[in-house]
């Protein structure tokens, strides 16, 4: 997750630094599609990534001294963010110093007053040169122009820093030479080296041969960064062996101390007390100043001491929460551990005051996981269900470890997108439907309805009939269903006598991908209508003839003549039958049972009764309206079964002797006899 590059400052624009795709093992062709971006806290974008090749080049030359001031190590931190999937890489650019600055002195010339009575070996502080470069490119040594009275020596302070001193090697004589002009040259260690020089003008004096001496060459102090103005930092003290004005000391900041530090601190000229003056607006934890002690002699002598002030941090910055990347909405079927957001949490305070803890409420299906330094990933910790909760407001709370701690909150709105994880649901497992037979074509039968808690196309339900057969025919020849609302319609008229009940299944299917479905069974019961008249099963007649029953000539009373048997294809009341005697040639002779259909004699037969009788029986159902059928029964009074049954007319009298049938038979017999006689006569004539 991290890569480090080194680049020299002032590298020209367009110069190659590396190939980020190759170095990180990323396919360069996917950089644009994955919406790469470089994030930095710097106000300038110093680097550029080619979206096609992944080549990393300089976008703006870097001035290390301007960017990092006096820091020994100059670093630029970038984050490379890629999406689909979300990835974060940390890039660190180490800006290498080049020798692009020459040593310089704060003054255009430097003056030293030297009493003439000083003995060889007397020392005088020389100014330090400043070089903005670091390491070997900073000031490495000093040289002094040749002079018979002076030479240069390097001294080391208690903290290890070096400074030049002018050493008197031969006694001075003001009357022979009152002024000595020297040149102090500072050289750095660059290749090639650079240098800077300053004129040093030595004025020979007659008096004040002792310079003030500090008790310590280095003073150390520590103060809080929010210390108010007037807070005492440290008190320095120097002594001068001279007497009178030559021994009176005044304290001040050396000219080599930066103007910013001289504005932030004050030093009392007589007591040496260093106090805070205003706001300590610095980013460096350690400040370095030089304090000069100068006596009040006619030609004042001076010495310097170093003051190191450590700024102790106080917890005055709250954590800053930055949402680097956010994926919303997220699908409800996202697996636990799916990254939703990438957060950058930074506290500008150093040390414990800058350490941050981060948390979210426990009752949410999410958790925070630390990523790279100062980064957290917001990931799912449980399975999501949009049908229960469709969105979340996640409050992120960041608190530092200061005392008292400072807390910052930020709320992220995460929406949950729907996936097709719910099939349609019917309100019951089965429905019973009652339909009257003889329904019209297209008649509405029933409407089924299913609900789907998903949204959009995932929740849009359509209805179809599952393939099946009814009475040997395809279900679709009986019924149709509306695709959108589940209304079921009849495509043919139902007949209770042929089909009394059947069942089928309706499938509800959503429009998701893949689609989910559910089925329900619909039981259809056909209700009977009185659409069938009773059918006479016995007695039966053929070709329109009357059914004939033979009764003994002298039958007794209550003799069973016949029993009318009928059937009705309808059901229930529509099939309840009753029998009625609609007509009888002799109403005193016969009676009919209304429930059983038995035709019996009311009395014994007499010799005077007609030989033929005819009755008409009506069989009626109990439908609304009722339907009926009739049968005519001919009754012949005879002790034996005749060879030919007579015809029955309405009068009930016996038929004449020569009826049409007998005439036809006699004529036919006469014709055949005549033809046979003619044939015999013809044969006799032929023989003769």
Q: Could you describe the 3D structure shown?
A:
With 688 residues, the chain is mostly beta strands. The chain has 6 domains: 2-96, Cadherins (Immunoglobulin-like, Sandwich), CATH 2.60.40.60; 104-205, Immunoglobulin-like (Sandwich), CATH 2.60.40.60; 213-312, Immunoglobulin-like; 320-390, Cadherins (Immunoglobulin-like, Sandwich), CATH 2.60.40; 425-527, Cadherins (Immunoglobulin-like, Sandwich), CATH 2.60.40; 535-637, Sandwich (Immunoglobulin-like). It contains 4 helices and 51 strands. The chain has a 4-stranded mixed sheet with strand order 1-7-6-3, with no helix packed on it. It has a 4-stranded mixed sheet with strand order 8-14-13-10, with no helix packed on it. A 4-stranded mixed sheet has the order 16-23-22-19, with no helix packed on it. A hairpin with a 4-residue loop joins strand 28 (366-370) and strand 29. The chain starts with a strand and ends with a helix.
Strand arrangement, major sheet: 1-7-6-3
Overall structural class, as computed from helix and strand content, comes to mainly beta
- Kindly identify the CATH topology of the largest domain: Immunoglobulin-like
CATH homologous superfamily heading of the largest domain = Cadherins
Radius of gyration: 63 Å
**What CATH first level of the largest domain would be assigned?**
Mainly Beta
Distance between the termini: 146 Å
Beta-strand content bin: 35-45%
Amount of helix:
under 10%
Q: Main beta sheet, described?
A: 4 strands, mixed
Q: Which architecture of the largest domain does the CATH hierarchy give at level 2?
A: Sandwich
Domains counted in the coordinates: how many?
Answer: 6
The count of DSSP E runs of length 2 or more, i.e. the number of strands, is 51
Mean pLDDT: 86
Tally of contiguous helical segments: 4
Shape: rod-shaped
Low-confidence blocks of residues? 651-657
